[in-house]
Amino acid sequence: MFRFTAPPPLSLYIHFPWCIYKCPYCDFNSHAIREDLPETAYIDALLKDLEQELPAIWGRTVQTVFMGGGTPSLFSAQAIDRLLSGVRARLPLSPDAEITLEANPGTVEQEKFAGYRAAGVNRLSIGIQSLNELHLKTLERIHSAEESIHAAETARRAGFDDFNLDLMFGLPGQTATQSCDDLLAAIELRPTHLSWYQLTLEPNTRFYAQPPVLPDNDTLWDMHNRGHTQLAAHDYTQYEVSAFAKAGRQCRHNLNYWRFGDYIGIGAGAHGKITDAGHGVVVRRSKQRHPQAYLENAGNDRCIAGQRNLTEAEIVFEFALNRLRLKQGFDLYEFETRCGLPGSRILPILQQASNDDLLLLDGSQVRHTDRGWRFLNDLLERFLPEETQHAGNNPD
Ligand SMILES: C[S@@+](CC[C@H](N)C(=O)[O-])C[C@H]1O[C@@H](n2cnc3c(N)ncnc32)[C@H](O)[C@@H]1O
Ligand code: SF4
Q: How large is the average pLDDT for residues 172-182?
């Protein structure tokens, strides 16, 4: 049993499992739509799913909502409006809640974006990936660079002064100059937030089965360094491994994940993490992944694919895994309130990491050294139970 003085802030994640086309690099729970989108049935299912979650969070206020996918922007503004009204009717949503919706540039209409805004969505996250036609083709994206530019302009016209662009680098055949040009072109669209990911080959994707030729490590390092310089020069501050924001425009929803906050997950394959302060446990729960199985079972126990209480070792590792992704350091008190454990539980690990110049320990304050940031995976591995750590993982 863990000792919590109070549960952490609460978020709501809503998953939409359909896309027009399955991208060859994507391992998210997303499926190409073959028939008509079951819009009404899916919103009904989400609301039933939410109702089943309510006993775990009575009395708590939701601070942020994130509609992710898949491609939530396949859904009409009316459907999103019904969903958000249903959410508000079922639980307390903070009046200043951040409400984000992910959009694909191939699914953009002015009227739809304006409708999302009217429904209460106040932040968009647009997946542009690249603004180079050649690379968009290699990634088999369904949209052109022009459509991405149009999507950003449409977002602004619809009243979204806060929007994120997702961009990737390290694309097949990409040079460092092309990745810089891409970043600069994205910056010119004046997003308040940029998520800048290095393309990775994920198991169970077509790119994994038939790997394209990716840039070599020297080129990737060059892209990384030039990209960081460019982002900083345009006042985008890095606050997480892949997240850059203008002042005050960090994504509050993702920040809550990284600070080991709580979240309810509804929708096909969604995960949640809830602190039950009264019983001193942290519960992780996931839903049926397959959209059809989810639609058939939402709201009843068969919809829950897995549920269990986290062990102490898992809580410690998950806290580190999330919290150390953020550039900002943390206080041991934060560890204690989020994990329900005494700071002394991780002190020996922190001290050893400090001796190895990976962390700086100043009283109860903990932050990365430059070396700790650079060798983040090695730092994180130290928080795994000893029997699962790799031998010889010192960054030296
Ligand atoms: C869940 S996707 C949703 C975005 C939206 N469906 C779209 O693609 O337009 C979130 C983001 O993760 C990034 N992403 C997906 N697969 C990736 C991979 N294999 N490597 C790096 N980033 C990836 C992409 O930038 C993508 O926009
Ligand atoms: S559109 Fe987005 S979620 Fe859908 S397959 Fe492509 S990357 Fe994945």
A: 98
